[in-house]
């Protein structure tokens, strides 16, 4: 059975669990745990977040990440694990409390383990648990959804992590999903500091023309994020595939060589070693050179999820980057 | 035309500072280390500064570049390695503001930074100094050729902090002095209240919701209460406070800005001109009191000894640097009229004071009573009029008070509060006021800064009250520290059949 791992920043105020239960039992338990608090503090209502995991362990890990959000936790988190075996539903309901800047908040946390045919109708199972008039985000923790997954129709947005895909072919699946789904990608979130630093390198009016004379782009990184970063640069700058070179590496990094009025400029953003910093530098022949250093945000999944959830709309820049990444990987477009 | 940066699409975009140098006058002072540098560090941490950014500190204190860097590093506790890296670019110019050599040195340093970083002559001059030197520094910047935008598409902006003058006349003179060097578009007057999220949220609440604006007028609003309360006393600022008082220190700027945002008409667009045009119209609609009216509409108060937040505190006249016979206002309560179509007949009650029970700022819209209560007498005793309260600080948020049935057999109704807490509803952390305003000044967005005509209009409202206060015989109502002000302030509302909220 799926179990939630208690994380930092939130405490269990009340709980209930049951095996082989029905949805109305769980709904009643939700009401009961809320009533168990004599004076419930502020209730946050941001969204319903569904964590979908094939493995209970993966689900628990993802749920723990959410608990670390403490008061920035969405209103209701539902962890769903699917198992083989006799049809049935096991459930655990917990009322969580957290304190943020002196304000007490509470939110509910559900863990559902689904067996039998209901595994293929999770949309109907989850619908009663969603909060009214609030968006529902489904986080596919350890797999990608099939294009015909009924949950995609119910979800306002789907959360994935391109870093965990492993194979470049999955990029095409993601690209296909963007045609009908709002896709939030934790890898894209983590790439943001790199993108910001790269964009900032061309802030100066004297450097901006170099963006139109890019001669080569070298991107290093893992399969998935590396492709996304390269796809972003090639799509934003309109650079042909032959000028873009990808290299497998632990951390992302970019080197751009560009020319303007006969001068060559070198633009680089790299992570020195395992330090959580990104160093950006520019040097132009016969011109100025400068560098800057920014600290990467904490690597925790909680941070990534919080950032990803802060904007639940389509991101055309991401979608274009993904499409370009598919091309760079030599895959047919979906 | 400068080509766009395609890599910036979808990122912070236009909310990202362009390459520029922040020049801070008064760099060795308290404001720089306590507010400005933490704000710069936060901007760096949020990656909102350009890679071509530097700070130049200017002050009389004889520091070297390294001294300045070390002090600014110390100023920000628990900063990351990026702060160390960023401060390594900081420069310092030691010199007297009255000496032209100081500005020659500054020009040389700025030229060096332009060549080194590609900042293209773009500078933000921040005057974190006493107001007395604003005009002199502005003139020296003009004489040194630093007030003009750089030739490569750069910009030169001047940021000053309140107080903007001591009264109407000195405010006008300050404008004349500044405008002799800088165009109005180059001048950014900071009232840090405008950088607060909840103050900006006033605009969102009013103009992004269909349910509030229709009742935001004399037909539904009984009166408005604006409270700016401080629990602290004057501390070591006694000397300054004796020349200012609560009216100049708080009402002329913070309160007038909050009142203007509350009372203004919807702007056509949420941009600098749209908002500031409407704010100034609202300020113009405030009925300026005649000398005869002041005594009936304004209460001047001063705190005596008492207990605040569990600690015994001395009275104002026993504070350091305060005379035994001081009549300076540490508390002001007033009734204002906003004479326009929307607000005619709706009093705006304003109060501000030091040594009140707690620190808070709020705007409370008190709605009219229902025309008829259909409940038996006695069953609606706990029911008050509806109120919408905007809490600006601390615990930023909104509270709506309305009537609800008490569970049980009887039909008893009483008031309940529905709270919206800013921190609990949004995943994003709100930027600090200075962080927001510094970034706006670098970007060139003057929306949250005060235009000269707003300053002038606010002084016009305060002028007759200042004139009355200058008469030593004008009553000074005493109040015990730790209370909500003098009884004369209670009387002010009681005469209208109302009473102050207890926030």
From TrEMBL, chain B:
Keywords: Carbohydrate metabolism, Glucose metabolism, NADP, Oxidoreductase. It holds the Pfam family G6PD_N. The keyword DNA repair does not apply. It is an enzyme of class 1 (oxidoreductase). The active site is at residue 254. Substrate binds at residues 192, 196, 230, 249, 354. Its EC number is 1.1.1.49. NADP(+) binds at residues 60, 162. One of its GO terms (cellular component) is cytosol. PROSITE patterns: G6P_DEHYDROGENASE (PS00069). Residues 203-501 form the Glucose-6-phosphate dehydrogenase C-terminal domain. It catalyses: D-glucose 6-phosphate + NADP(+) = 6-phospho-D-glucono-1,5-lactone + NADPH + H(+). Signal peptide: none annotated. Residues 23-201 form the Glucose-6-phosphate dehydrogenase NAD-binding domain. It comes from the Bacteria. Pathway: Carbohydrate degradation; pentose phosphate pathway; D-ribulose 5-phosphate from D-glucose 6-phosphate (oxidative stage): step 1/3. GO terms for biological process: glucose metabolic process; pentose-phosphate shunt, oxidative branch. GO terms for molecular function: glucose-6-phosphate dehydrogenase activity; NADP binding. PANTHER family: GLUCOSE-6-PHOSPHATE 1-DEHYDROGENASE, GLUCOSE-6-PHOSPHATE 1-DEHYDROGENASE G6PD. Belongs to the glucose-6-phosphate dehydrogenase family. Catalyzes the oxidation of glucose 6-phosphate to 6-phosphogluconolactone. This is Glucose-6-phosphate 1-dehydrogenase. The lineage of its organism: Bacteria, Bacillati, Actinomycetota, Acidimicrobiia, Acidimicrobiales.
């Amino acid at each position: 059975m799926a179990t939630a791992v208690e994380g930092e920043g939130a405490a269990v105020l009340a709980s209930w669990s049951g095996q082989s239960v029905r949805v109305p039992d769980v709904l009643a338990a939700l009401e009961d745990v809320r009533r168990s608090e004599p004076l419930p503090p502020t209730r946050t209502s941001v969204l319903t977040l569904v964590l979908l995991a094939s493995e209970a362990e993966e689900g628990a890990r993802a749920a723990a990440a959410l608990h670390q959000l403490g008061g920035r936790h969405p209103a209701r988190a539902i962890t769903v694990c699917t198992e083989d075996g006799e049809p049935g539903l096991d459930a655990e309901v917990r009322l969580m409390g957290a304190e943020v800047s002196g304000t007490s908040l509470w939110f509910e946390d559900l863990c559902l383990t689904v067996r039998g045919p209901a595994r293929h109708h999770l949309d109907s199972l989850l619908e009663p648990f969603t909060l009214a008039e609030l968006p529902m985000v489904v986080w596919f923790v350890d797999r990608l959804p099939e294009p015909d997954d009924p949950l995609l129709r119910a979800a306002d947005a789907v959360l994935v992590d391109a870093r965990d895909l492993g194979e470049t072919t999955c990029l095409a699946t993601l690209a296909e999903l963007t045609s009908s789904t709002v896709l939030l990608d934790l890898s894209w979130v983590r790439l943001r500091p790199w993108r910001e630093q790269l964009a900032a390198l061309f802030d100066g009016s004297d450097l901006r023309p170099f963006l139109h004379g890019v001669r080569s782009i070298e991107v290093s990184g893992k399969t998935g994020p590396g492709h996304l970063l390269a796809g972003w640069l090639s799509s934003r700058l309109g650079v042909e595939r032959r000028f873009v070179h990808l290299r497998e590496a632990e951390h992302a990094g970019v080197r751009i060589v560009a020319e303007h009025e006969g001068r060559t400029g070198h633009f680089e953003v790299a992570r020195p070693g395992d330090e959580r910093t990104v160093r950006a530098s520019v040097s132009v022949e016969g011109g100025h050179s400068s560098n800057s250093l920014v600290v990467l945000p904490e690597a925790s999944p909680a941070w990534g999820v919080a950032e990803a959830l802060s904007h639940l709309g389509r991101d055309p820049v991401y979608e274009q980057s993904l499409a370009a990444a598919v091309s760079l990987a030599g895959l047919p477009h979906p | 035309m400068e080509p766009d940066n395609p890599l910036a699409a979808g990122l912070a975009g236009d909310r990202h500072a362009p390459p520029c140098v922040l020049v801070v006058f008064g760099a060795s002072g308290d404001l720089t280390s306590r507010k400005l540098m933490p704000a710069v560090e936060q901007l760096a941490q949020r990656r909102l500064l350009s890679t071509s950014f530097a700070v130049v500190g200017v002050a009389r204190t004889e520091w070297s570049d390294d001294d300045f860097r070390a002090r600014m590093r110390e100023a920000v506790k628990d900063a990351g390695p990026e702060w160390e890296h960023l401060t390594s670019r900081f420069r310092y110019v030691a010199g007297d503001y009255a000496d032209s050599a100081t500005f020659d040195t500054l020009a040389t340093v700025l030229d060096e930074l332009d060549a080194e970083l590609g900042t293209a002559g773009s500078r933000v001059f921040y005057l974190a100094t006493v107001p007395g030197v604003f005009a002199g520094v502005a003139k020296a910047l003009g004489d040194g050729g630093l007030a003009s935008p750089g030739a490569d598409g750069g910009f030169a902006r001047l940021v000053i902090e309140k107080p903007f003058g001591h009264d109407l006349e000195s405010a006008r003179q300050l404008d004349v002095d500044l405008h002799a060097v800088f165009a109005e578009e180059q001048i950014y007057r900071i009232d840090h209240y405008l950088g607060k999220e909840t103050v900006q949220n006033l605009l969102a609440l009013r103009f992004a919701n269909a349910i509030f604006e229709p009742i935001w007028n004399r037909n539904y609003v009984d009166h408005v209460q604006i409270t700016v309360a401080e629990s602290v006393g004057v501390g070591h600022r006694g000397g300054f406070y004796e020349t200012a008082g609560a009216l100049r220190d708080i009402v002329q700027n913070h309160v007038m800005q909050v009142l203007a945002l509350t009372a203004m008409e919807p702007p056509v667009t949420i941009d600098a001109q749209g908002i500031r045009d409407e704010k100034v119209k609202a300020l113009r609609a405030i009925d300026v009191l005649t000398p005869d009216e002041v005594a009936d509409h304004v209460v001047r108060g001063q705190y005596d000894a008492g207990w605040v937040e569990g600690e015994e505190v001395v009275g104002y006249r026993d504070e350091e640097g305060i005379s035994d016979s001081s009549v300076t206002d540490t508390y002001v309560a007033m009734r204002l009229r906003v004479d326009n179509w929307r607000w005619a007949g709706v009093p705006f009650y304003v109060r501000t004071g030091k040594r009140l029970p707690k620190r808070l700022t709020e705007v409370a819209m008190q709605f009219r009573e229902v025309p008829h209560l259909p409940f038996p007498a006695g069953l609606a005793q706990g029911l008050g009029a509806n109120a919408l309260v905007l809490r600006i600080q601390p615990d930023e948020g909104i509270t709506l008070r309305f009537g609800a049935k008490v569970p049980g057999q009887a039909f008893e109704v009483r008031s309940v509060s529905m709270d919206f807490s800013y921190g609990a509803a949004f995943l994003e952390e709100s930027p600090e006021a200075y962080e927001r305003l510094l970034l706006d000044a670098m970007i060139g967005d003057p929306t949250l800064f005060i235009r000269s005509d707003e300053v002038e209009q606010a002084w016009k409202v305060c002028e007759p009250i200042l004139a009355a206060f200058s008469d030593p015989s004008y009553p000074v109502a005493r109040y015990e520290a730790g209370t909500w002000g003098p009884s004369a302030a209670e009387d002010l509302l009681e005469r209208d059949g109302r009473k102050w909220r207890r926030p």
